Amino acid sequence: MATIELTGDNFTTHVQGDDILLVDFWASWCGPCKQFAPTYEAASEANPDITFGSINTEEQQELAAAAGIQSIPTLMAFREGILVFAQPGALPAPALDQVIGAVRALDMDDVRKQVAEQQQPGAGQG
């Protein structure tokens, strides 16, 4: 599956609707972004069951700001609507493959439990 362009109009739909969504935040003037692009595209072809999206931070400044992007490229991974990974920097192919494997292997019942515990008042105190 080829990489899809994510915008403010379709971002939430993909986060909530896709089992696994990887998102690459990039800009045309960013050298490391250009270096990472072929690696990301190759991973999208090798993993057709995962949605690979890209967000041009120049065109989607509000979306990048809402996501808290401070440096690019930044890779985020969502699983079942939950942000499970976020890291700036261009990843080499083996590291990207590790991220994909780790996201696939997550016990989402455990992740949802952890998220629920963090959202409770007073969580983490004591």
Automatic annotation (TrEMBL):
PROSITE patterns cross-referenced by the UniProt entry: THIOREDOXIN_1, THIOREDOXIN_2
Database matches in CDD domains: TRX_family
Keywords noted in UniProt: Disulfide bond
Pfam families (UniProt xref): Thioredoxin
Residue ranges constituting the Thioredoxin domain according to the UniProt record: 1-105
Keyword Disulfide bond: yes
Organism domain of life: Bacteria
Signal sequence range: none
Protein name: Thioredoxin domain-containing protein
